[in-house]
Amino acid sequence: MKKLPFYFSLIAATTLSTSLYASTNPCLSSIAEHTYDHYLSLNHCNLTDEDMPTLRTYLDAHPEITDLYLYKNNIGAIGATELAKNTTVKALVLYRNHIGPEGAQALAKNTSLTVLSVGKNKIGDTGALALAKNTSLMALDVSRNKLTDDSITALAQSTTLQYLDLSKNKMKSASLAALTANRTLLGLAIEGSHLGPDDAASIAKMSSLIYLDMGKNKIGDAGLAALSQNKSLVGLAVHGNKITAYGASSLTNMPSLAFLFMGKNKLGAEGAEMISKLPHLTYLGIAHNKIGDNGAIALSKTASLVGLFADENNIGPAGAAALTKLPVLTYLMLNKNHISDEGTIALATCSTLTGLHVQHNDIHNEGAFALAKNPTLVYLDISYNHIGPKGLNALAQNKALFAITEGNDGVDDGVRAAAFLAKKTVSKASPMSMTSAAIPPKQSAKWKQVSHFIQTLSPLALS
User: Fold this and answer.
1) Phi-psi bin for 130: left (phi > 0), alpha (psi -120 to 50), beta?
2) CA distances (Å), origin 21, targets 30, 32, 39, 233, 463
3) What's the helix, strand, coil split of the chain in %, to 5?
4) Pairing label, strands 39-41, 35-36
């Protein structure tokens, strides 16, 4: 929850130097507006090395800030070295900067950080090898850094890391062998690493894993069947792997799965039917799979579903109506389907929904009127439909509802701009969290830790 502006102004008046507010960087000049409880989010702020001493001064004066987000700035090795001197920040996200090997080496000497993202920073093997020696880090993102077997093997041999993101690096046999031998990692992300079904079979042997992201590889049905032999997994991401309904049938061997992300595969309605048999499934990502109304009707039998992400699936009014039968559904994404007013009116009757995305669904005033009366919705993205002024006014009258309405018939350019800015502020911080009562007690504490790492390292966090 964002703190009150008055509270920040009081702190600023008593603890901050005037040099901070004299900064030419707009984000630093209004730094209080970027602070949320123990988070400081300065994503997309065009920060440079020259800004880091000012930022570090602020951090030193505010030890309550433990999570720092600096995604997509212009911070180099000098700036990273300055940040490494701080001893109060515990989680640092530097994804998409350019700290290089020297910056990574400086951060590797910091013993206060427990969560670090240096993805896409050109740190290379030199930087990764330095980070592999740090025994304070529990979660590390080194994705997109052109790492080779030497540094990946070193990272895989760490006994203190619990979560490791190696996505889009060069994964070869030596790297896979080292990962397979690891017995301490709880979560592993190796998205987009050109891995096939045999590689999936090797990774499946990692008995300590409870979360695995192998999205955007080439594992296919055979790879998913191999992964299904791992009985410890609670969360699995295999989006973009050309998996069909036949491959999805192997998921019945994984009754402990609570989180499953299978977007951009070839599941169809039959694949959705297979997935619906998972007894503890809590969150499902199944976008771009052409499941249609029949697939949505099949998923409506999955009584444990809390969150469903089903964009671009040719779902119409009948499928939308079926989903209202899910007894604990709280978060639903149906962007770019064909639900129209009829499906929207059906969704409005759902008494458990708190978050709903229905962009590009040919919704008019009638659908907006119905949603405006829903007593449980707190977040609605109904952008790019055909809602007129009366429908938008009805949504505005619901003071408990935060509605994104850009691109509708009754929205002028000024309102569109304001809506876009609001959307950037809210980002995808939806009313959902990666928790589930369905997780076995022995794995619950571990999953809580892993889900915290995943959400903290996300580039979208508080953007």
Assistant:
1) alpha
2) 7, 10, 19, 48, 22
3) 40, 10, 50
4) antiparallel
Is 140 in contact with 159 (CB distance < 8 Å)?
no
**Beta strand 331-333 with 67-69: parallel, antiparallel or unpaired?**
unpaired
Q: What is the pLDDT of residue 110?
A: 98
Residues 361 and 339: beta-carbon distance below 8 Å: yes
Query: Are 369 and 348 spatial neighbours (Cβ–Cβ below 8 Å)?
Result: no
Gap between the Cα atoms of 293 and 310, Å rounded: 11
- Give the DSSP H/E element, type plus range, for residue 285: strand 283-285
* Low-confidence residues in the chain, pLDDT < 50: 1-21, 413-432, 461-463
- E runs forming strands in 3-108: 35-36, 39-41, 67-69, 91-93
Domain ranges within the chain, ordered by starting residue = 1-116, 147-266
> Residue 331 pairs with which residues in a beta bridge?
307, 355
Predicted confidence at residue 429, as pLDDT, reads 35
Read off φ and ψ for residue 402, nearest 5 degrees.
-95, 110
Residues in the chain: 463
Between CA 73 and CA 445, with CA 428 as vertex, the angle to 5 degrees is 100
333 bridge partner residues: 309, 357
Can you tell me the distance from the alpha carbon of 185 to that of 259, in angstroms, rounded to the nearest whole number? Answer: 18
**Residue 308, beta-bridge partner list:** 284, 332
Structure tokens at 273: 């039917």
Q: Which residues 6+ apart lie within 8 Å of 113 measured at CB?
A: 89, 90, 91, 92, 107, 134, 136, 137
Q: How far apart are CA 314 and CA 318, in angstroms?
A: 11
Choose the CATH number for 147-266 among 3.40.630.40, 3.40.630.10, 3.80.10.10, 3.90.1300.10: 3.80.10.10
Shortest CA distance to 457 belongs to which of 129, 100, 143, 154?
143
What is the reported pLDDT for 445? 84
Q: Which residues of 211-248 are buried (b: 16+ CB within 10 A; e: fewer)?
A: bbbbbbbbbbbbbbbbbbebebbbbbbbbbbebbbbbb
Residue 175 contacts residue 156 (beta carbons within 8 Å): yes
Q: Cα–Cα distances in Å, from 312 out to 23, 70, 361, 384?
A: 45, 32, 10, 14
Number of neighbours of residue 418 by Cβ within 10 angstroms:
14
Return the SS3 of 193.
coil
Maximal C-alpha separation, the chain: 64
